Amino acid sequence: MKVLTRLYILVFFMVLCNCSSKDSDEVEQHENLTMSAITEFSANEQTQYVSVVSNLDWSASTTADWISVSPSSGENSGTLYITVQPNETATIRTGVVSVIGGSISRALTISQAAGAESSGLNPNLAPSENFDLSTWKLSIPDDQGNGTASTITVSEINQGYQNSAYFYTAADGGMVFKCPVAGFTTSTNTSYTRVELREMLRGTNTSIGTQGVNGNNWVFGTAPAADINAAAAYDGEMNATLAVNHVTTTGSNSHVGRVIIGQIHANDDEPIRLYYRKLPNNTLGSIYFAHEPTDGNGDEQWHEMIGSRSNNIANPEDGIALNEVFSYTIKVIGDSLTCTIKREGKADVIKTIDMVNSGFNVGGQYMYFKAGLYQANNTGNDDDYVQATFYELNKSHTVN
């Protein structure tokens, strides 16, 4: 009996030890704290986010007065938003964001591009004094007296024109376009407002008509010889550097958050309309463009460059945030149209399409560039708006 009792006691202690060992294994936890890496910010005020992957309580902080983080603490995995204030100096600046959890400390070095002083833009000057607007006119959504949008002529815009509601110089010297949902449109053929520049190759020579194959417009290099000789120029390239600051957050699912930032317009159709779109729940936006052939030459085509034009897309991979500076180039040589998106430190995104069968190379078709904001949402709240700041805008053509 004593032997049996000892045996029961031995078994009891073995079971107890095994349970204690198992419980100890379950309680033991390896600390984990990692972050996705973003390091480069534009010179403007900008917010980007990093993903924090962790099984710890953590805190985030920075000693740089131009950087802020939100939230300042969290638990387990989450999202950390990093905001930089505008860099008004001519030099690149760096700062550190620290995230600490348990015994782990992570440091993320933030680099912000140099500000406006390096671009030569002066915040005390009107847009026409910082940019060559000698061959542009402007449309704004105010009533010009007949129920259509107002036109600021080439002459007027180059006499120091600014408008605090729609078109003005920013604190960093950039050229601001701001376009509300509500307002007057340029004609009965559109229901969308715009604060947009329209190319006017005639400059201030109003003896030349606005429309037609003439000294105010250009044609494709594959147009008939008579049209090439009659036009102001043929083929063309437009380059712009900008940041989209705000997009609409109200309106229908198919309209919200989208805006046209550059175009080539023909008689009635557009060889290209370049869109930026950021959906309300996303922090990053997409870039895509439409190619609209003339009547009888096929359906409108859509070409995605960064992200998607979908109404329900999640954050597009490698998308463009609000206030992030990027550049676009729209270039036409003959029937070849190329759109390029450029961002500092990233590979260019390039899309070329063949327009030989689009109907723009026939007699009578004329072209002009457009830049700024063409509102692509007419379903949002009246006071909702889009805004962009341009830091470069130039164009060129082949002249006869």
Description:
The chain folds into two domains: 33-116, Sandwich (Immunoglobulin-like); 119-398, Sandwich (Jelly Rolls). The protein contains four helices and 26 strands. The protein has helices spanning 2-27, 127-130, 154-157, 225-230, and strands at 33-35, 40-41, 46-54, 57-62, 67-70, 73-75, 78-84, 93-101, 104-112, 136-143, 149-152, 167-169, 175-180, 194-199, 218-219, 233-246, 258-265, 272-277, 284-291, 301-306, 320-321, 326-333, 336-342, 349-354, 368-375, 385-398. Strands 10, 11, 14, 17, 18, 19, 20, 21 and 25 form a nine-stranded antiparallel beta sheet that branches. Strands 12, 13, 15, 16, 22, 23, 24 and 26 form an eight-stranded mixed beta sheet that branches. A five-stranded mixed beta sheet has the order 2-9-8-4-6, with no helix packed on it. A hairpin with a 6-residue loop joins strand 17 (258-265) and strand 18 (272-277). The radius of gyration is 28 Å and the shape is elongated. The protein starts with a helix and ends with a strand.
